[in-house]
Design a protein that fits this description.
Oligomer: heterodimer
Strand content of chain A: 15-25%
Shape of chain B: globular
Helix content of chain A: 40-55%
Largest interface: A-B, 52 and 46 residues
Number of helices of chain A: 16
Number of strands of chain B: 15
Strand order of the largest sheet of chain A: 11-12-13-10-9-14-15
Structural class of chain A: alpha/beta
Number of helices of chain B: 9
Order of helices and strands of chain B: HHHEEEHEHEEEHEHEHEEEEEEH
Helix content of chain B: 25-40%
Strand order of the largest sheet of chain B: 5-4-8-9-10-11
Largest sheet of chain B: 6 strands, mixed
Strand content of chain B: 15-25%
Structural class of chain B: alpha/beta
Distance between the termini of chain A: 53 Å
Radius of gyration of chain A: 23 Å
Number of strands of chain A: 16
Chain lengths: ~450, ~350
């Protein structure tokens, strides 16, 4: 198999190669260029709403597909689809447009610039979006962004995100064929020379994934093409123990949910939670409370079936830390024998998690200590979820370290559509601008 | 059972050889005694097992004994009686994160290691009773004292072969001139030879012979033991290609090339019984048992299904016997079919960032 088209217009279905597909979509994109961006957002939003509607057959299809393809539990499928599809609604997309552009119509026509002249924005086209599997729905989000800026888009989703991506484009085609026909969802063998050759014809390549995926894309993208990359990241959390001290249970519940969501595979999933307190016993009790929440979530938001490598990594990490805890003073492991671990570890240094619901809880005396702990890995941190307030000075230092998003622990798993992903503007990064002087 | 008594019992089992049956009951008796000894001597292991609901008094069978993960050997020394002097310390191979990430296996009593090595190697590499000169493409123990493989080959050389010579130097690599001269002498003399080495070294040598167009026909009865894989190496060669290369350049048929599967964390090994007329799957001696487990739940998988490989090695009396590996395998009627590392597939999630993240953090 070199390339297989999972969803597209009937004409694009006949394209034998990625190159031919890009040509067909670029031609069909003409219809998209004549539509107003606000109208496109409304159309896409109607489709997005169907995925949120409990009565819509397409929601059922999407949920069943998530369970089957992504091997996540039914409850997780609901949580993921609800969280992702919320950002596919017209309301969210319009907020995205208005956040990024003073006047969204700059995507439709030339508008005046404050200091003279006019400009208009065009989506770089054709575009290829390559997304990863760790969070189902990321493919759809990327596809939507491409269509909002009126690019012809080929989406190659991760292997566990194909069904949802194809379903969305099919639904869009039934809602409004002239928008949908500028896009296709495919799968391909990256070792195939024809795929690599096709990639070199894209004006824009967007890649979510690990180093090898990014290297491959960069290697085969045309040197003049724009490349937007979203590498793997990690996230962390901070709990200010003196913020609503009697309500730490609430913080524990938010931490547990943030860890459990996506089975911790998201770039927003926290690996380590720092509890800011001068009293280690407060942090230790916090870890117990998080553990109790994790136990509950194993029933209400059950874990999915991990791949063998993920499961192996979990058992290796779990067994190793249990042995360390058996010997080391102060380390406490919760969840032995369960499909999660909460490890209270009063030792300095950032610890990455093996994922699969394995979280470290570390006590630190002050917010400045959080900054120091994160210093070696600051450039890799995507989201820092905070319960409480860390203070302006610490915020500034965290920002300089490289942390890209600071939010509440509750909101950490669900960045809004208008959020900058990894500090990159989601729509502006897909554009070229045309300026007219005078 | 006293420690001395237990050791003697184990050595007697090893001396009985790979064909002496070891009943389930007898294996369980020994396993429970080994487990009890290990819990008695190591507070850490005892506490680890207790947290998992396992004690020597409660456990009935070997498969209920909690396994330590191989990665734990990187952070802890598993010495069943830490105050006891160790006779050797073996280090696991380095990871892509570098040599500082090597695990440690402290061996308090090399008698058990020797006792396990000799009958097993004899059965699978010398089933015809031959006593052959050994030519080694592994680093000798003098150069690599922390290598479990080097020690094993030293034991083999001392007890099972006529003469042994190593043709690998840590600085200069393979001494091709010396190696090939020795082998050509065997061709001339029509005397069979045993060649042992790691797959990776064999690959380099084959590449060199190919460039030079060198071929020889080693006498009938010559045989090869190869071991190790290519993880973290610059090249990977499929096993059939490696064996085809060995046959082409050395004249040793594939039926006389035996793969050994061992690990630093264990003192017993698996071999392919091809020289005994068996199929190309790995078999263990009676004192080493293996379970294949569902990667998610660690429950045993049905026979013939793939899963994570977990070993129980009686020879590991003085460390830990139950070891959970990162390998995938299938138990069949013929033995253990190894499928490779569980982590070889590109993982989902951000975990792929871990190596980068942790190397930055260190």
């Amino acid at each position: 198999m070199t390339m297989r088209i999972l969803s597209s217009s009937s004409e694009a279905q006949r394209a034998p190669t990625l190159s031919a597909l890009l040509h067909t979509l670029e031609r069909d994109r003409e219809h998209l260029l004549d539509r107003s961006v606000l109208e496109i957002a409304e159309v896409i939003g109607r489709v997005g709403n169907r995925f949120l509607d409990p009565k819509a057959p397409i929601r059922r299809l999407a949920l069943d597909g998530l369970v089957d393809e992504a091997q996540i539990s039914a409850a997780m499928a609901e949580a993921v689809l609800d969280g992702m599809a919320r950002e596919w609604t017209a309301r969210s997309l319009l907020k995205l447009l208005h956040t990024e552009f003073e006047q969204a119509t700059v995507l439709d026509t030339f508008i005046g610039r404050p200091n003279g002249g006019r400009h208009q924005a065009f989506g770089l086209s054709p575009a290829v979006h390559i997304t990863s599997s760790n969070v189902p729905g990321v493919g759809v989000t990327s596809l939507i962004r491409g269509l909002l800026v009126k690019s012809a888009v080929v989406l190659k989703p991760g292997s566990e995100d194909r069904q949802l991506s194809g379903l969305f484009l099919d639904a869009l085609a039934s809602e409004d064929p002239s928008i949908a026909q500028a896009a296709a969802v495919v799968e391909w063998d990256s070792k195939d020379a024809a795929v690599a050759a096709g990639l070199s014809e894209a004006q824009l390549v967007v890649v979510y994934g690990g180093e090898s995926a990014i290297r491959w894309a960069r290697q085969h993208a045309h040197p003049s093409a724009q490349t937007v990359v979203y590498p793997h990241r990690v996230s962390a959390g901070v709990v200010m123990a003196n913020y609503k001290p009697g309500q730490l249970d609430e913080a524990a519940a938010e931490v547990a949910r943030a860890v459990a969501l996506f089975d911790q595979r998201g770039c927003v999933s926290p690996h380590t939670i720092y509890v800011v307190t001068p009293d280690n016993t407060v942090a230790e009790r916090f870890a117990e409370t998080v553990a109790a929440q994790m136990e509950g979530l194993e029933q209400t938001l059950p874990p999915g079936i991990p791949q063998a490598g993920e499961a192996s990594a979990f058992h290796q990490a779990a067994g190793s830390i249990e042995l360390e805890a058996a010997g080391a003073t102060g380390v406490v492991v919760h969840g032995v024998g369960e499909r999660w671990r909460v490890v209270f570890e009063p030792r300095p240094g950032f610890r990455g998690s093996c994922l699969g619901r394995f979280v470290w809880i570390r006590p630190v005396p002050t917010p400045a200590d959080v900054v120091r702990e994160l210093e070696p890995v600051g450039a890799q941190i995507q989201t820092l979820g905070v319960w409480g307030k860390v203070g302006v000075e610490a915020l500034g230092r965290l920002a300089r370290l490289g942390v890209r998003r600071i939010t509440t622990i509750k909101r950490a798993p669900w960045p809004a559509a208008r959020s900058r992903h990894d500090g990159t503007a989601p729509l502006r990064s897909l554009l070229r601008w045309v300026e007219v002087d005078g | 059972m006293t420690t001395g008594g237990l050791k003697s019992d184990l050595l007697a089992v090893f001396a009985g050889g790979v064909d002496a049956p070891l009943s389930d009951d007898r294996f369980n008796d020994l396993a429970r005694a080994v487990f009890s000894y290990q819990c008695e001597g190591s507070d850490v292991y005892r506490a680890f097992c207790a947290a998992r609901g396992a004690t020597p008094e409660a456990n009935e069978t070997w498969d209920q004994i909690p396994a330590v993960p191989t990665r734990a050997f990187k952070v802890l020394n598993f010495n069943a009686h830490p105050n006891r002097q160790v006779e050797a310390v073996f280090l696991t191979s380095g990871t892509t994160r570098g040599p500082t990430e090597r695990g440690t296996h402290e061996v308090a009593d090399l008698d058990l290691y020797r006792g396990s090595i000799i009958p097993n190697f004899r059965a699978h590499l010398l089933p015809d009773g031959a006593r052959l000169p050994m030519v080694s493409l592994a680093l000798p123990r003098s150069s690599e004292p922390s290598s479990s493989l080097s020690y094993m080959l030293q034991v083999v050389a001392e007890h099972l072969t006529d003469r042994d010579e190593s043709y690998v130097d840590p600085e200069s690599g393979i001494d091709e001139t010396g190696l090939e001269s020795t082998l050509m002498q065997h061709v001339t003399d029509r005397t069979a030879v045993l060649i042992v080495g790691t797959a990776f070294t064999f690959v380099h040598w084959i590449d060199s012979m190919m460039k030079r167009g060198l071929q020889m026909r080693l006498p009938e009865g010559s045989r090869i033991m190869e071991t190790g894989g290519f993880k973290g190496r610059s090249r990977e060669v499929l096993r059939p290609d490696l064996y085809a290369g060995l046959t082409h350049h050395l004249g040793i048929p594939e039926s006389h090339i035996v793969n050994e599967y061992g690990m630093t964390e264990l003192l017993s090994q698996y071999y392919e019984p091809v020289l005994r007329g068996g199929p190309r799957q790995h078999v263990s001696p009676p004192w080493l048992r293996t379970r294949v487990l569902n990667p998610t739940t660690l429950a045993p998988v049905p026979f013939g299904q793939p899963g994570l490989v977990q070993h129980f090695d009686l020879a590991n009396l003085n460390s830990v016997s139950a070891v959970l590996t990162e390998d995938m395998g299938i138990l069949t009627n013929d033995g253990l079919e190894l499928l490779g590392r569980a982590s070889d597939a590109e993982p989902r999630g951000c975990s792929i960032a871990m190596d980068t993240l942790l190397s930055v953090a260190q």
